Amino acid sequence: MKHILLTSVFAFFFGSQMARANIFNLGTGELLILIVICIFVFLILVGFIFLCLYLIKRTKSIKHEQ
C-alpha cells in the first residue's frame, strides 16, 4: 500500500517537473494534454487505492460474520 502511494507521488512530481522544464519547448496544446493525462493517471491511482481499502475492509467484515 505504501509503495502505491509513493509511486503516485513520484509520478505526480515527475510529471510536474517535466511540464515545467518543457514549458518553453512545448505548445499550449501539448501542455494541456500532459496536464489532463497526469490528472487522469492520478485519479486512477487514487481510485485503485480506495478500491483496495474497500475490499480489505469488506473481507475483514465477512471473516467476523462467520
Descriptive account of the structure:
The protein has helices at 2-21, 28-65. The chain has 66 residues and is mainly α. Helices cover 88% and strands 0% of the residues. The mean pLDDT is 75.
H/E element sequence: HH
What is the general shape? elongated
Query: pLDDT below 50 for ≥5 consecutive residues: which ranges?
Result: none
Rg over alpha carbons: 17 Å
Structural class: mainly alpha
In short:
This protein is mostly helical and 66 residues long. Helix content is 88%, strand content 0%. It has 2 helices and no strands.
Based on the model shown, name its key terms.
0% strand; single chain; mainly alpha
How are the elements arranged and paired?
Layout: H1 2-21, H2 28-65
